[in-house]
Amino acid sequence: MLWNSVLLAVRAIRRNVLRSFLTILGVVIGVASVIVMVTLGDGATQSVKDQMQSLGANLLMVRPGMRMGPGRDAALSPNFKMADIEALAEQIGSVKAVVPTASAMVTVVYQAKNWQTTVTGSSAAYFQTNNWRLASGRFFTEAEERAGSAVCVIGSTVRRELYGAESPVGTTIRVKSFACDVAGLLESKGQGGFGMDADDMIVIPLRTLQRRVRGNDDVTGLQVAVKEDASIDAVIEQIKVLMRERRKITEGEDDNFTVFDTRQIADTMSSMVRTITMLLGSVAAISLLVGGIGIMNIMLVSVTERTREIGIRLAIGAVETEVLSQFLIEAVALSSFGGLIGIFSANAIALGVTRLIDVPFMFNPGMNLVSFFFSALIGVVFGYFPARRAAQLDPIEALRYE
Amino acid sequence: MSADSSEIPLVELRGVTKVYGQGQAAFQALRGVDITIRQGEFVAIMGPSGSGKSTAMNILGCLDVPTEGAYVFRGAHVEQLTRRQRALVRRHYLGFVFQGFNLLARTSAIENVELPLLYRGEPHGVRRRAALAALASVGLAGWEGHTPAELSGGQQQRVAIARALVSEPVLLLADEPTGNLDTQRGREVMELLASLNSEKGLTVVMVTHESDMARHAKRVVHFLDGLVERDHRNGGPH
Ligand SMILES: Nc1ncnc2c1ncn2[C@@H]1O[C@H](COP(=O)(O)OP(=O)(O)OP(=O)(O)O)[C@@H](O)[C@H]1O
Ligand SMILES: [Mg+2]
Questions:
Q1: In total, how many domains does chain B have?
Q2: ipTM
Q3: pTM for the whole structure
Q4: What is the whole-number distance in angstroms between the Cα of residue B30 and the centre of ligand 1?
């Protein structure tokens, strides 16, 4: 019996392909936008997590100023001193290493090519705490660091821009105004997402940067690697106490530096992305609802348009429930077919867009399944009213309908 | 008349009235109609426009119920049946042929003819065979795949007759089956109905305006103003 209704519904759909397609368009778009939004959101969240992961776990960042971002008053929150590094390393037990950093924007030149990039000055431990691996050559050594040698390790973007396919190791590039030996090439970390290119930089010893680029002794950031078993919160507290003392901040005065926990940043950012995803997802869900109303509208029109057909069916001996189930199945078949098309095109679109903006493509089978059942449900809900209307038609009047 | 009394009454209208609308606008389309039709009869219903022919046909076809009076179909009181039960009577015992053919558009002849069997729940193979046989019996073998738009009026009406026959009804009801056809096609359809009656013993009730067509019937019932004015055996060709 049900199978017959399915057969009748399929025949009715086939009889008018264009109308059937227009009927489901709303559902196609609705389902597709929900899936695209959520898939992209998931990808962005993953991208944030990956990026933070690449910074290394158990890493704290200490920066001058009270918050991240520009607008720091240099007089009120001075940069760190070289002595701060030793103090942190020696006076706090759970600290594995303290890596100082400072950076500047420079133009680097190799033969006829030049490239604007960020140069970071740091210690040899920088590569390890930041999870950098070598593609070729070597990192600079502690001896070179102490001596302030003109030696650098370059990121893969800089290599691409200056060398093309040529091997950079052993060559000399000009950094700002001095010649610098290229000791190593870093393995690519890939696009960081949000337009940040982690590979667009070179690293030189801190002392070299201070003397030859910035012309001062400033350390603009400290990376503190914490031992695996230590409590991060306790270490943050200890750093704060020590730095307040060293920076001569009196009691009651606010900190003029900030300690960030990279994991915390990752959590904040991914929860932010999740919120945006949910917001966009809800907007898309509304469009799905509108798609459902579209189905109802066209099913109602179709009931009117097919009044005579319904009359014929009733005259031939169809009972009310058969007409009802035929129209209901028609609506469900249409909407779930629309859902299927939506799911396929959404995943194709999401795949393309994730490639384009360079975030991972996160296929979410649960959500795809839920979307499918939801689109079928839309058919039931919005198909019921028109179907009942069709089933309750008076056969004589329906037959006489022009 | 005496010859008919041995035959079983198939349907019986007893004092049937039909009122459309209510109060001021009420209109009495049938005003006490008595007709008895026996198995194997070929009845033509005639009468001026608005005399209640179609109204009576709709009641005979269980598409409508009388306002008053009784309609007995094979011993069952149709006026007491539910909407669903009447649909089942139509499904199992009745075949309809309409003036406007009423085939499903954009649907092949064979799918149209199969439809009543689909509602009866017959399996695919049975449906196919019966539909092909029904199409062949109306002279449309080879036209199975054509949609109504690809068929002439006469052919469409024959598809409609095949659809009415496919479920092997006990009563075939035809409301002006030749009304939309030219004289030649009309005569062919009439001859088809007459042969179904004479050769297969199918009971046929048909409304027509043309006495030319009514000559094929064995009995003619004249309607006037919602009443049976005259009910007589036909000399005709029989
Ligand atoms: N649904 C309805 N509501 C109100 N009045 C109706 C309805 N159906 C029929 N009538 C009226 O009942 C009367 C009989 O109608 P019916 O259709 O039975 O006539 P008929 O004999 O078949 O006429 P025709 O030869 O023109 O087909 C007509 O006056 C018609 O206007
Ligand atoms: Mg009529």
A1: 1
A2: 0.92
A3: 0.71
A4: 10
